[in-house]
Amino acid sequence: MKFNLYKSVALCSLLALTGCHDFEEMNTNPYAPVYDPTVIGGTADGIDIDYTLSENALKSLQATESAVGATFFNFMYEGLYNDYQTATNLTHDVYAAYSGSNGFLNNAPAYAYNDGWSASRWRHFYDDRTISEYSQLIKTFWFCNREYYHNAFYITRIYYAFLMSAQTDTYGDIPIKYYVKGMIPPEENVEYTPQQEVYNLIFQMLDQAITALHNPPATAQYKFSDTNDRVYKGDVDKWLRFANTLRLRLALRVSNVDPALAKEQGEKALKDPAGLMQSQEDNMKLIPKRQFITGGNENIFGLMYSWGASVVLPKEMEWAYKNQALKDGIDSSADGFVAKVSQGTEEGTVVGLDNQKFNEKEANCYLDPRCEILWFRPTSLDDLNAVDGIHESDKEFGGYRNGVTEVGSKYTTVYSPMRVDLRTDAMNRKVWWNLAREIVWMSYSESLFLKAEAALRGWDGVTESAKEYYEAGIRASMNYYEIDTDAEGKQKIEDYINHLAGMKAFNGGSKEEQLEQIITQKWLAVYPNGNEGWAEVRRTDYPRYLLLPRYGNNSNGEVENTKLIKRISYPNSESRNPLKPSYTQGTRVWWDIADTMDETGKWKTPNNFR
Questions:
Q1: Which residues contact 203 (CB under 8 A, 6 or more apart)?
Q2: pLDDT by residue (tens digit) across 294-304?
Q3: Angle formed by the axes of helices 444-456 and 466-480, to 10°?
Q4: Which residue from 447, 484, 512, 553 lies 20 to 30 Å from 181 (Cα-Cα)?
Q5: Measured in Å, how far apart are the chain's first and last C-alpha atoms?
Q6: What's the pLDDT score for residue 347?
Q7: Spatial separation of the C-alpha atoms in residues 21 and 149, rounded to whole Å
Q8: What pTM value is reported for the model?
Q9: With 90 as the cut, is the pLDDT of residue 33 above it?
């Protein structure tokens, strides 16, 4: 990363005060002062603002102060959403086994590095979110009226910690010193902060913000409006619950590599008086602009469906939907069970053939009710998009193996496309996705699964057993999809939960066996957030349904053909910096301590208790 490049981009992007915010939502003044990012003093140490501003820089902040609400809106809205298809869906979502890429066969889904896609994610985090928005926000809040903006300052820091966690989990070591304090690094070649240290900075930020929000100054507080904070509407209590839930998520992330740190941070989150997420109202989500702006942008999954149903059900999710709750008397000797082949060639050579078989026949199971809400049965697009309504087939739900050559819109008769209705923006629980549907980044159901694992690990601050949190997490996920709103849906939930093989693990099974059940259901509940799903796949090596690309990968040897991808490579522009680490896409990040597959490509039972 070059200082000159990023400084020039920042100055250009900030001419409009708030970066990429929709012009129809703000009155821009082309003659307004440019935000001046220059600071006096400051060090790379810690997270606290230890610099001052020149008179000119302070005046530039004061001149743009009225735009902080609009800037914060864009900061939150675009945080994980900018260029979502190329920055996330075709990488993280596929690697989490949340998205069967019905196209882009030889590209990033099959582990080929795409520099444009990585550069896009990198640019959005540094140029757009960090320099153009976060930096301006925290300086305005700190230097213009510190007591009045106390809550706003720490809320902004919480959300930046959230974005930092996704960035470091994508790349590993990242440049973050100075940036975290709202500064532009003064060095030409920016230092990369080791991921372990990045996590320490995140925990410091969350600890400081949570403490500060519990203890605001005795003065009137600026509050983000409902239109500028579309998620929590400036509600400090909701932001505190989000911060605690994020802290517990990240504490568990490091539980294998640093158990003592994990326990310390996890218990702080669990014991905080604000608590964790309490209901669906606490979900951290993305609300498409289409909901509140005429002509605003759409839910990305709805948009991708309009491009020939370019997202289909992955084979791993099909197996999860059909194998968690088998009917009484059904085992792997029944018709419909298939061997798990991790990989094969066109000629039939098999790699990683596991002994375990998985069910593919719906008659053998109580199908996960979420499957019918989120995916269509294999059906031609003409029938799904007919003018007179959806004409869905009665075929078995079909999953796509990453790397299979049968791709494109004509194969929706073979693979299940995302369940999308482009005809209306009205919410319909029977066809979940449309162009206005929200996307959840962190959910109430996830918070319950986090508590389940914390209980399993014996951490203080939980009040229920791992089994009780596990079941509550499943029910909360079903509730989010409104499956429990009629008698038929309630019966499907009860049949499913009462036949979960995973329940047996909580009656005498090992901690590892219990964790597998918690993480598998958590993975199903976290869908479609590939940022989190892929991180948990790498951290825990669950679910056991995970598969390698069908015919090998296109990483040019960076990722072994018997292994899963571990991270995204840095953009090629970073090669100019001699301090850039020499990691490849096959190098595990700091908290990922073991491979999911063995040397022959077989899934191996992990050890998540050390």
A1: 247, 250, 261, 265
A2: 989 999 999 99
A3: 170
A4: 447
A5: 37
A6: 56
A7: 22
A8: 0.94
A9: no
